[in-house]
Specification:
Blueprint (H helix, E strand, L loop, with lengths): L6 H18 L3 H7 L4 H9 L18 H14 L1 H21 L2 H12 L5 E4 L15 E5 L2 E12 L6 E7 L9 E7 L5 E6 L10 E12 L3 E2 L5 H37 L1 E2 L2 E2 L4 H29 L5 H26 L9 H10 L8 H13 L2
Length: 380
């Protein structure tokens, strides 16, 4: 693998950085305090092409690939994790499975709206009894002529309050746990589809997280994604890409922690000199920087495998496992370097500390990543 980023990807990184500095950074503190969803920023990112990063050009996407998406997501999350996870889920969990598994009719109907940022996408897999055990789906999809009738509930749906299109997984065959699951593209305005209240969270306050209820929700057969009974395979393949996105988010948070730590260490005085001159602080910063580079290599490798047509399941799990744990270590060190000021509500490192925690939980917990890696290593 060539670890040198192309000129095109570096230009993308610089472009999104300029946009964030000018249009987003001035509003983050206010919006986080108000838990305000960054809809305007998302629409602007759509117009700039960042909401269809891996979507093919024939459907109004940019077709930049997963490595480019990882770099852009790190940059967005370095500034604001609430915006970063919104963009990540939209690209990796909404656009990507539709582009990969959808019929030509579905792709032409929905991808241009998603790629432009006109519509926002969401991914509805998790249920109260189907989190880490994702195959334990209880939401039912019953065939009725040219429609399916969906009944059930989904929880922890990122982007849910503002999404226009949802990839919903439901059981079409009760006789088999994994081969009995199918996927459907469900529009927000479909009768029987109800979005619940926003869930209060430890971090990522400006992202949207809701429960969804489906009661007699009728979806055309044409809106089924791929073949009936193949939904679990599609869900797992999609999550491999999503885990690269969350690894990128974790890298962005860790990068922000490193920058904040260096700045604070140079400014903060203790016993007559900057704390940057103390070995204890130097080692924290050195470990952060080294781990950050290692995390990037793991993440870029997993992204490149996806770009080359592979599933990258083991590599994506490694990237997410390492990067999410790194983000939490970096955030803890950043608060320590900032001292009491780092524990104050509203300080940047306090936000990074809260935002980092979720990266070890969603799109597969740390324990699930280890399980995925071990299964690949130990299978005969």
């Amino acid at each position: 693998m060539d670890f040198e980023l192309s000129a095109e990807i570096r230009a993308l990184r610089d472009s999104v950085r300029q946009f964030l500095d000018e249009a987003v950074v001035p509003h983050i503190e206010r919006m986080e305090a108000a838990k305000e969803f960054p809809l305007d920023a998302i629409r602007q990112l759509g117009r700039l092409g960042f909401m269809g990063m891996t979507t093919p050009k024939e459907y109004s996407g940019q077709a930049f690939g997963n490595v480019a998406l990882a770099v852009v997501l790190e940059e967005i999350n370095r500034v604001w994790a609430s915006l970063g996870v919104t963009v990540s889920v939209h690209n990796s969990l909404a656009c990507s499975p539709l582009a990969k598994f959808g019929s030509e009719e579905l792709k032409r109907k929905y991808l241009p709206k998603l790629a432009s940022g006109e519509w926002l996408g969401a991914y509805a897999l998790t249920e109260p009894e189907a989190g880490s055990d994702a195959a334990n789906q209880s939401t039912l999809a019953t065939r009725d002529g040219n429609e399916y009738v969906l009944d059930g509930a989904k929880i922890w749906i990122t982007n849910g309050s503002y999404a226009d299109l949802f990839t919903v997984f439901a059981r079409t065959d009760k006789s088999h746990k994994t081969r009995g699951i199918s996927a459907f593209m469900v529009e927000r305005t479909t009768p029987g589809f109800t979005v619940g209240k926003e869930e209060p969270k430890l971090g990522i306050h400006s992202s949207s997280t809701v429960e969804i209820q489906l009661e007699g929700c009728r979806v055309p057969v044409a809106n089924r994604l791929g073949e009936e009974g193949k939904g679990f395979h599609m869900a797992m393949d999609t999550l491999n890409g999503g885990r690269v996105g969350i690894a990128s988010q974790a890298l962005g948070i860790a990068s922000a922690c490193l920058e904040a730590s260096i700045e604070r260490a140079r400014e903060r005085q203790a016993f007559g000199k900057p704390i940057s001159e103390y070995q204890a602080i130097q080692w924290m910063v050195a470990d952060m920087a080294t781990d950050l580079d290692a995390g990037r290599m793991l993440t870029y490798r997993a992204a490149q495998i996806r770009d080359n047509g592979g599933s990258g399941a083991q590599e994506a799990a490694m990237a997410k496992l390492f990067a999410s744990r790194l983000a939490n270590r970096a955030a803890s060190s950043a608060v320590q370097i900032w001292g009491s000021a780092g524990a104050l509500a509203g300080s940047p490192v306090e936000r990074y500390f809260r935002d980092a925690r979720i990266t070890e939980l969603y799109e597969g917990t740390t324990e699930i990543q280890r399980l995925v890696i071990a299964r690949h290593l130990l299978r005969s």
